[in-house]
């Protein structure tokens, strides 16, 4: 990687592995843009959805909003409120998972055009596959470590932590497969794999810096 030229580092990670924190710390070390919440905020503004609503919609194979509307709407002209926003039936039926994906592709490319960045998740390893000067990283951890971290960070019971991990894992993999025809667990998608069972977050950042030659 040429660090003097604009570059992109994508970090795909398993929920509970600490990969999001690694991505943020790496961006801080490199003094470049960190892309995670920034993209979520852009999607929220475009579709008037909460982060939870976006993730839920992405993980389903059908129009979740439409199903929700049909369950609670009292008439064809009724509206519903989700996350502080009001939606009409026409709007709900118009929003699809494909809309979310297309928006992510557009926003990610626009951000990458602005300059060097570290991107957490968002299928960026595939979306930006034709970008020059790019490194793709996957961060994993044992399920037990992930369970413990989720329990500590979110204050969940062990049972709820396991359910959270399994639900998010399945949803993310379905989303990636749907639009890329690839599995996010296929290590051939990445240049570097880091196992957080053997690394602290700061050590993982150092490993990445060593790998990219800084």
Please count the beta strands (DSSP E, at least 2 residues each): 7
Using only C-alpha atoms, the radius of gyration works out to 18 Å
- State the helix count: 10
Rough outline: globular
Unreliable segments (pLDDT under 50, ≥5 consecutive)?
61-66, 68-93
The rounded distance between the terminal residues' Cα atoms is 9 Å
**What is the average of the pLDDT values?**
81
Q: Approximately how much beta-strand content do the residues carry?
A: 5-15%
Main β sheet profile? 5 strands, parallel
Helix-strand string? EHEHHHEEHHEHEHHEH
Structural class by helix and strand composition = alpha/beta
Major β-sheet strand ordering? 2-5-1-6-7
**DSSP helix fraction:** 40-55%
Short descriptors:
214 residues, 10 helices, 7 strands, 54% helix
Gist?
By secondary structure, the chain is of the alpha/beta class.
Topology of this protein?
Blueprint: E1 8-13, H1 19-30, E2 33-35, H2 37-47, H3 51-59, H4 64-72, E3 79-82, E4 85-88, H5 89-94, H6 97-114, E5 117-120, H7 124-127, E6 134-140, H8 143-154, H9 158-180, E7 192-195, H10 201-212
Parallel strand pairs: 1-5, 1-6, 2-5, 6-7
Antiparallel strand pairs: 3-4
Helix pairs in contact: 1-10, 3-9, 8-9
Task: Give your account of this protein's structure.
The protein has 214 residues and is α/β, with parallel strands linked by helices. The protein is built from ten helices and seven strands. The strands form two sheets. A five-stranded parallel sheet has the order 2-5-1-6-7, sandwiched between helices. A two-stranded antiparallel sheet has the order 3-4.
């Amino acid at each position: 990687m040429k660090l003097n030229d604009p570059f992109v580092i994508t970090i795909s990670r398993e929920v509970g592995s600490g990969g999001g924190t690694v991505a943020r710390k790496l961006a801080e070390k490199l003094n470049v843009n960190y892309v995670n919440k920034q993209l979520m905020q852009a999607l929220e503004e475009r579709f008037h959805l909460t982060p939870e609503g976006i993730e839920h919609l992405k993980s389903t194979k059908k129009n979740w909003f439409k199903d929700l509307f049909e369950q609670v709407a009292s008439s064809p002209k009724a509206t519903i409120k989700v996350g502080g926003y009001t939606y009409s039936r026409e709007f709900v039926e118009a929003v699809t998972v494909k809309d979310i994906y297309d928006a992510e592709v557009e926003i990610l490319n626009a951000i990458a055009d602005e300059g060097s960045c570290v991107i957490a998740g968002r299928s960026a390893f595939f979306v930006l596959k034709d970008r020059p000067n790019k490194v793709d990283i996957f961060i994993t951890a044992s399920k037990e470590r992930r369970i413990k971290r989720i329990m500590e960070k979110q204050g969940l019971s062990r049972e709820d932590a396991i359910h959270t991990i399994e639900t998010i894992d399945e949803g993310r993999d379905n989303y990636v497969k749907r639009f890329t025809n690839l599995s996010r667990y296929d290590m051939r998608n990445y240049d570097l794999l880091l196992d957080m069972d053997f690394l602290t977050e700061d050590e993982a950042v150092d490993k990445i810096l060593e790998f990219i030659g800084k």
